[in-house]
């Protein structure tokens, strides 16, 4: 099932912007290690409207151009056909005026498919996108997110799907990279204490539990049917560091056999920018609207595809109301795994 972000993505996702900024040091490390070549292809997988990564690509292009002034640079923004790819094209085009006047292209395909020809990419990057699964691993009947569900059977199925997908993604990327090329993935993850996006260990409410409570309440009020309730599933998965590294530690994995190797990895925590602003200014209406919009940007599709737009609108009206009623109990904190890889053969 394809997912889709709401329109105006980057205006609603200050947290994702901070997550990209937190990875910019490693992005520069990657491009600074590239061998001199006539040309380099750089690609941003799952870029949404591209707005959150404009600053990162400014830095990366400038740095690569400073190191290799004679190289032609091509920047490709990738996302699904359902994405706002016009907005992506416009944000990529912001890079064209800077030297060395890069070529910019949009690849409107899934990152579960090959994106470019084999052995062509010098630097692949992806932020906060590869947690989306390629397909449903079967029913999740008792919750809207598997990792908050406590459903052991569903958790096993979702974990297996997530690992199959991750192996597939790395296999595809390992084919696209040229020898010496670098891949940096910045993914929503689960840390060793089991924390993940929206679950900060009880400092504030678990956002996924809150979404589920609202959805379940709507089923009890018969605003949605039991079948629609069951179909309302956020089809993503927050992998652990070990799960992220597994295909690179397994010498028989396709990615490993294609020459992809782990260079470094780390877990990075990004605090909710909406909550930080509320701590400073106490503007509850602004906090409730902003936090709701950022949660809606990635979860709306899951509810709308199960029960239609009106039902999804109700979810987010109720969510905003809940935040406004108890602002001190809300925060959307990010747990992200950074994985730097290179192709050696
Ligand atoms: C939360 S946004 C992240 C956007 C941007 N990379 C950032 O960090 O701000 C996730 C993006 O992943 C995209 N996405 C999800 N599944 C995808 C797939 N299979 N192929 C390409 N893009 C995908 C979504 O369409 C969405 O634009």
Q: Determine the N-to-C terminus distance.
A: 34 Å
- List low-pLDDT spans: none
**What's the helix-strand series?**
HHEHEHEEHEHHHHEHHHE
How many β-strand stretches?
7
Small-molecule binders here are: S-adenosylmethionine
The tally of helices reads 12
Strand content: 15-25%
Q: CATH-wise, what's the superfamily?
A: Vaccinia Virus protein VP39
What general outline do the C-alpha atoms trace? globular
Strand order of the largest sheet: 3-2-1-4-5-7-6
What's the CATH first level? Alpha Beta
Please, how many domains?
1
Q: What is the architecture at the second tier of CATH?
A: 3-Layer(aba) Sandwich
Task: Name the helicity range.
Answer: 40-55%
Q: Please outline the major beta sheet.
A: 7 strands, mixed
C-alpha-based Rg, rounded: 20 Å
Q: Any idea of the CATH topology?
A: Rossmann fold
What average pLDDT do the residues reach?
96
Label the structural class: alpha/beta
How would you sum up this structure in a few lines?
With 345 residues, this protein is α/β, with parallel strands linked by helices.
Structural commentary:
By secondary structure, this protein is α/β, with parallel strands linked by helices. The protein has a single domain, classed as Vaccinia Virus protein VP39 (Rossmann fold, 3-Layer(aba) Sandwich). 43% of the residues lie in helices and 17% in strands. It is built from 12 helices and 7 strands. The chain has a 7-stranded mixed β-sheet, sandwiched between helices. The longest helix is centred in the middle third of the chain and has 25 residues. The chain is globular and about 65 Å long. The protein starts with 13 loop residues before the first helix and ends with a strand. The model has no long low-confidence stretch (mean pLDDT 96). It binds S-adenosylmethionine. The site of S-adenosylmethionine has 22 residues, from helix 1. S-adenosylmethionine (SAM) binds next to helix 1.
